[in-house]
Specification:
The protein is of the alpha/beta class. It has helices spanning 12-19, 34-40, 55-65, 70-83, 89-92, 102-122, 135-141, 158-166, 186-205, 215-220, 222-232, 278-281, 284-300; strands at 2-5, 25-27, 127-133, 150-155, 209-214, 245-246, 249-252, 268-271. It has a single domain, classed as P-loop containing nucleotide triphosphate hydrolases (Rossmann fold, 3-Layer(aba) Sandwich). It is globular and about 55 Å long. Bound molecules: zinc ion. Zinc ion is lined by residues 45, 47, 49, 54, 56-57, 256.
Length: 309
Amino acid sequence: MLYLGGLGRSGTTVLERVLGELPSTCSVGELVHLWQRGVLDDETCGCGKPFSRCPFWNEVGRRGFGGWDRALAARMEELRPRVDRTRFIPRLLAPRLLGRHRAALREYVTTFLQLYRAISETAGGAVVIDSSKHSSLAFCLRTEPAIDLRVVHVVRDSRGVAYSWTKEVRRPEATAEAALMTRYSPSRSAALWVGHNLFFGLLGLLGTSRRLLRYEDFVATPGPVLEELAEFAGLSLAPGALDFLDGSSVMLSPSHTVAGNPMRFRTGATTLRRDDAWRSELPRGRRWLVSVLTAPLLARYGYLRRSSR
Ligand SMILES: [Zn+2]
């Protein structure tokens, strides 16, 4: 399975949708939210149907768990805060340090394994693309040897990310409460950006298959990036496999994503373009603050070079 990791607003949803157009892949959105938003809250699937009426998810539920069970979803939501949190990452490095939560980790990860298998089988043996993004879930998953985990670590310029987190974005799939996506102050998103990126770097150092990808490089040259990622995912592309892509224009078909940026509902021709609104819209003081707080990693990822402009 291919796991798209990184801080939110780094372009993971658009990357996931485009990757999902490759043959033998199945993009399912942010699976970490499947239990609450899909099974319990019955939010809208990327195909436009409520989760409970989506044939794809019904089949996944049947294969994986003999049908979706609210008790199982509630159990997963109960387990998540016990093991799948950023602050537990140091302990996830050596699960024996989790003490009594070790059994909870096994149960949590085994259920994800069952879920990935059911999705892959339903999609005819496809590579599952999970854009859950959180570093903590990746650290949980790496403890299960039966999961062939390959992580695409997506980074985007911290100032673009910070600007995006200050904007008000509506969640069209939300029923009543939480109709707006979360917002963060620039200093908070800068701190999260550094933390998540360091953790994904660490994941690679620990031996998990990891590929670093700059969002800006993906939108600038999607074709070569897709070829490289397909190889990373173990897919061999037949001639014409990238026909859905024409320069920077992609043809998106509906997908069964359970959660993610509202962009997940978009279908048809879509142009990939770099979103540089932050250069004019993020006030100078805030831009400076984010630049200072994230400078070492910005330099490491090549964002401070003149050519990257
Ligand atoms: Zn669906």
